[in-house]
Fold this sequence. Notes:
Order of helices and strands: EEEH
Mean pLDDT: 80
Largest sheet: 3 strands, antiparallel
Low-confidence stretches: none
Amino acid sequence: MLIIPIQPYSTRFNSFLARFFVDNTPIRLYKNRVVHGVAGYPHRPMQVLVSLWDGSNWATDGGKTKANWTQAPFQAHFQDFNINGCRSNPHSPNKDCYSTKYWWNNRNYLQLNSHQMRELAAVRRKYMTYDYCTDKNRYPIAPVECHDHEP
């Protein structure tokens, strides 16, 4: 069995962007581009979901690296959840959730800072093997959310 040491994961989400961190290093950035016609930015309460899927025909070095199913069963353990949020009803959203009285809506959280941007770029260079925004074989015309993509 493959055992990976416990690492802190965090998601920081506001109406501008969702940031995903491992060991306090940004690994994914998802901007709210609704004003540019991109649908899909989360507008519902956040939840934690875990899934396992086999993308080894396309997502791993163009299908060159296959999933190693001999390592199954795959298990995950989660602990120490800390949640800061704003209560809201999906049928009557709490507009107060967008106010700067919440730390996640302050200027420092509208984008990654320059140090975090360098870290994100380094993570992408070292670990990212597939990016659908740059996959011209599958998407000859890039999906709309990729038009101002930051590689």
